[in-house]
Q: What sequence folds into this?
């Protein structure tokens, strides 16, 4: 039987989501880091370089770099290229604003380190009401 | 339609409305804004403020009287920003406080040299016009704090732009969060921002201590390396730099701030004995022990350089300086370094600055000297704001390799311009410009 883990988070940008996990141990910038048309990670320094983020549950510590990130995430939300949801351990207001505007669910997790609990490719389901995250290990 | 497809804010705000009274206190005036009694712009702004405030756990709004906006460039605004701003301005929204603006995708006085396509130019004009109609000041600079918009110690602000946020918090002691576009616009339209994060004393103290043992830090390049190196630790806490005992001017500080906020989410840092909230190490750390202690010496400096200096081969198409935009003294340093030399015919050499600084550089005779040497002084824009297709049209056969001493640009160029930059100090960049080779 598949191993299933649940962890609790706080809903920051509302919505339920389900998808395959894309896990990055370092901060992420959407501006200059992700192409909002192709949804490919263009930041050559990122461990996620060349990955497609559309429909993925992105798990990473927090945002960084350009304040243009809000517009990129907002645009991706409108174009249907956005990740299914974002799980962060620290809240960067730039990313939060982009997630709210672009209708990308976002959860803040502090009780465990989600980058350790969730592995790339795990199936992750977010309950948009309770903030409970259910992880089915790959 | 304000929010294409989704009506995000309306849903979001109504989702939280039931809890509003208990969690987020609004004054009568703020409620009137939210109810639409004070116009469309104030209403939309307050909806955004409430949405962000609730998400971030704010208990009330704080009055802000200084706003700096990005997203004036068609490249950084993307569709969402473009639609958002033009919709607001079409519906008569006006900024209520001093609101300045960031760089655009082109030089307003020199469109033809940059060769922007007609449709791009038209779109950019339309976006600038939208800001104009809303009453934003067309400072068109990423360093407004050095071009006439200078907040004071303790002043609550709502600012965008990496270097600008870190500079006004850290060097000036003003207070802003790292604002994304919609949040800063909301503040401009309402004169309010949700009170959380760096508006509050407790969140401003440092907890990650960096002992700076590296000396000779007073240059754009060295300030950039330091900022880029420590910025990546700022997700773990606000950084405190101890051990810097030489004078670093505000122009270099701008570079330090921009770099620190590029490699990490740096909103504020402190330099013991130099920045206003760090008169002593104890005060900078809020009387507590640091959660992490690090050292910045020769080894760490080299790490930062090696991480960014990833260009291959020795061909040089483009030498680029100015991120953040160069200030008058930075331009003077380029003049001193290049005077009497000549840029190689295969090389396009740009320095970017604000239009107000360019005017002063003209008066000083710097622009003439630079142009004679083969340097183009570009105002109002930067490399990462140029539409990608345009880069392929520039120069003799398109731009395929770039050399820079600007740390933030070295970080962004791979993702924005799809090139791997050579990164080095002013002298190395000048040598590359003159010989056409990177060594």
A:
């Amino acid at each position: 039987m598949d191993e299933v883990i649940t962890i609790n988070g706080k809903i920051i940008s509302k919505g339920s989501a389900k998808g395959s996990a894309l896990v990055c141990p370092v901060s992420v910038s959407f501006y200059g880091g992700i192409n909002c048309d192709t949804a490919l990670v263009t930041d050559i320094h990122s461990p996620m370089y060349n990955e497609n983020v559309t429909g993925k549950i992105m798990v990473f510590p927090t945002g960084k770099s350009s304040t243009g990130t809000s517009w990129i995430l907002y645009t991706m939300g409108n174009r249907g290229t956005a990740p299914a949801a974002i799980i962060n351990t620290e809240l960067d207001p730039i990313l939060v604003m982009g997630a709210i505007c672009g209708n990308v669910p976002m959860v803040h997790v502090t009780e465990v380190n989600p980058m350790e609990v969730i592995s790339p490719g795990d199936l992750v389901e977010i309950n948009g009401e309770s903030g409970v995250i259910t992880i089915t290990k790959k | 339609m304000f929010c294409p497809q989704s009506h995000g804010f309306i849903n979001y705000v109504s989702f939280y409305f039931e809890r509003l009274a208990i969690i987020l206190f609004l004054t009568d005036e703020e409620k009137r804004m939210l109810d639409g009694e004070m116009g469309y712009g104030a209403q939309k702004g307050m909806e955004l403020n409430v949405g962000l405030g609730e998400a971030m756990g704010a208990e009330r709004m704080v009055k802000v009287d200084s706003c700096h906006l990005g997203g004036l460039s068609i490249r950084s605004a993307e569709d969402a920003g473009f639609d958002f701003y033009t919709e607001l301005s079409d519906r008569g929204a006006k900024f209520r406080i001093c609101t300045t603006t960031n760089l655009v995708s082109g030089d307003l006085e020199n469109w033809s040299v940059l060769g922007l396509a007609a449709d791009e130019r038209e779109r950019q004009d339309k976006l600038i016009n939208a800001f104009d109609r809303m009453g934003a000041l067309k400072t068109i600079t990423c360093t407004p704090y050095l071009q006439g918009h200078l907040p004071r110690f303790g002043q609550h602000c709502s600012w965008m732009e990496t270097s600008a946020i870190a500079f006004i918090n850290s060097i000036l002691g003003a207070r802003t969060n790292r604002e994304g576009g919609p949040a800063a616009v909301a503040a401009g339209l309402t004169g309010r921002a949700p009170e959380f994060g760096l508006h509050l004393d407790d969140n401003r103290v440092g907890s990650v201590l960096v002992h700076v043992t590296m000396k000779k830090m007073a240059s754009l390049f060295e300030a950039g390396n330091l900022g880029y190196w420590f910025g990546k630790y700022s997700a773990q806490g606000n950084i405190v730099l101890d051990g810097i005992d030489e004078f670093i001017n505000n122009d270099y500080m701008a570079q330090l701030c921009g770099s620190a906020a590029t490699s990490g989410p740096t909103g504020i840092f402190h330099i013991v004995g130099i920045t206003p909230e760090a008169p002593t190490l104890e005060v900078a750390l809020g009387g507590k022990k640091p959660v992490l202690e690090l050292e910045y010496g020769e080894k760490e400096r080299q790490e930062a350089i090696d991480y960014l200096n990833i260009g291959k081969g020795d061909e040089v198409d483009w030498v680029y300086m100015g991120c953040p935009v160069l200030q008058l003294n930075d331009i003077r340093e380029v003049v001193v370094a290049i005077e009497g030399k000549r840029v190689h015919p295969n090389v396009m050499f740009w320095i970017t600055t604000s239009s107000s600084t360019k005017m002063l550089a003209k008066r000083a005779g710097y622009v003439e000297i630079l142009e004679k040497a083969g340097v183009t002084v570009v105002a109002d824009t930067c490399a990462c704001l140029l539409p990608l297709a345009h880069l392929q049209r520039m120069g003799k056969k398109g731009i395929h390799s770039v050399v820079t001493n600007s740390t933030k640009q070295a970080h962004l160029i791979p993702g924005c311009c799809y090139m791997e930059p050579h990164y080095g100090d002013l002298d190395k960049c000048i040598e590359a410009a003159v010989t056409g080779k990177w060594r």
Observations:
- The domain at 4-136 of chain A is CATH 3.50.30.10 (Glucose Oxidase; domain 1).
- The first strand of chain A starts at residue 4 and ends at 8.
- Chain A touches chain B through 44 residues (CB under 8 Å).
- The helical segments of chain A are 69-79, 93-101, 114-117.
